[in-house]
Specification:
- It is a single chain.
- The chain has a single domain, classed as Rossmann fold, CATH 3.40.50.
- Helices cover about 30% and strands about 30% of the residues.
- It is built from four helices and ten strands.
Length: about 160
């Protein structure tokens, strides 16, 4: 299993000099969570952007990274605003891998509870799921096209087909 860290709110930190949140080019938030787990998971950083700044070229990089990975289970830490677009781009490749997208509505460095819960749930879900592309957020787990973000209330929900 590998975690691909793309940035997003999950990883944001506050810059006290600039007075704003930024996406650092490191894996500190994910590494902090993994320290408390008993399993060993590799972390690879890729892109390091807020998902609103991601474009099709970034999605190509993500897709190619997943395609080339020797791992059959991949967790993608991704911003929530365009998570569904990236998940769909990965799903179109029809790989024989389990790919689980997760993220956070609040940065780990502001409040670690949601980030930790989402990542831990994604790890467990990835270990027990068949190949396919999934989204795991806020206790909601399902195929990428059955989980969506309600932007008006800031919550993920399961979409009935």
């Amino acid at each position: 299993m590998v975690i691909l860290n793309t940035g997003g709110t999950f990883n944001k930190r506050y810059d006290p000099i600039g007075g704003e949140l930024f996406v650092p080019r490191d894996n500190r938030a994910v590494e902090s969570i993994l320290q408390s787990l008993v399993i060993d998971i590799r972390i690879d950083g890729v892109i390091y952007k807020d998902s609103l700044e991601m474009d099709d070229a970034d999605r190509e990089i993500l897709c190619e990274t997943i395609r080339q990975s020797s791992e059959t289970s991949v967790i993608v830490v991704h911003g929530t605003d365009t998570m569904e677009l990236s998940a769909e781009a990965v799903a179109v490749m029809n790989l024989k891998k389990t790919v689980v997208f997760t993220g956070a509505m609040v940065p780990f460095h502001i409040d670690p509870i949601e980030s930790t819960a989402n990542l831990a749930m994604a790890i467990g879900f990835a270990q027990r799921s068949c190949s396919g592309v999934y989204i795991v957020m806020q206790g909601v787990c399902g195929q990428y096209n059955h989980v969506s973000k309600n932007r008006e209330i800031g919550k993920f929900y399961y979409v009935q087909s």
